[in-house]
Amino acid sequence: VLLSETKNAVLTLSLNRPERLNAANDELLFSLTEALKAAETDPAVRVVVITGAGRGFCAGQDLGDVQNREGSTNFTEHLRHTYIPLIQTIRGLKKPVITAVNGVAAGAGASLALSGDVRLWSENATLIEVFSNIALIPDAGSTWFLPRSVGAARAFELMAFAEKVSAADGLKMGLCEQVYSAETFADDVQAYAERLAARPLNALALTKQALNFALSSSLDAALDNESVLQQLAGDHAEHKEGVRAFAEKRKPDFGKF
Ligand code: LHQ
Q1: Hey, what domains does the chain have and what are their CATH numbers?
Q2: In testing the pocket of ligand 1, which one of 20, 25, 65 has its CB within 8 Å of the most ligand atoms?
Q3: ipTM above threshold 0.95
Q4: pLDDT, tens digit, for every residue of 184-239?
Q5: Does the UniProt entry include the keyword tRNA processing (predicted)?
Q6: Most buried of the four, 38, 125, 235, 253, by CB within 10 Å?
Q7: Which residues are CB-neighbours of 250 under 8 A, at least 6 positions away?
């Protein structure tokens, strides 16, 4: 259900149920969460890419799987055991996570697409807050991620009508940072990820932590949090390398930290 490959410090995790557009079952969600946790402590990995095999990114919860459950499904328990730890792991990971959206991202798959530190879309990517088509509410973080890019009213509209967002519109709306041609998508994502992997990763991990904090805090609290995290950045060998390289008029070598 999950393919894993590391190349030049970039770990690519591919959701692999292509015949169902990578709709998620428990096994897929658990495997993905475990692989992300393992990546955090793996010195060979500096950046993680999450993408989909085949023509889809992720069609959300496998609806066949939901229907197969005995009796009435306990959605709250299900979310607490599967999607919540997954999204928390992505947002808390001390390494950058790129969501590389190769095709349709629907339902909880849309939430997953939005959860990356950087979101790279193929021109074939689409995002659909599809939940209302089956009279559910957006979960796995969509109610948190989407209004932060488009505002609550536009988010509500996208959710109410399960409107399909194209790659061009996703870029305008701030749902992704780059759009690449479908033919070169995998190579473009790898090249982007390798560029990110060459950046100072301790500083980026602290930047991620600061952004996570600031998204739910007051300005005063964010300013104070920055001052604490800046100390951690400044005490790291990476910072000394950056300053030394500047003085010596050469490119810093952050890859060794
Ligand atoms: C699928 C799925 C799918 C199984 C396509 N499952 N097979 C929910 C419940 C409980 C608690 C936790 O939280 C959640 C969160 C959620 O994610 S709810 C939302 C669940 N997802 C959906 O409702 C999406 C359903 N799928 C679609 O609307 C369409 O398939 C999209 C718009 C994603 C893609 O449309 P098309 O490109 O036209 O592809 P398709 O519909 O022909 O799908 C291709 C195949 O994939 C097809 O199988 P088949 O055997 O006919 O070729 C679909 O049945 C299968 N598939 N999504 N979620």
Answers
A1: 2-197 (3.90.226.10), 201-256 (1.10.12.10)
A2: 20
A3: yes
A4: 999 999 999 999 999 999 999 999 999 999 999 999 999 999 999 999 999 999 99
A5: no
A6: 125
A7: none
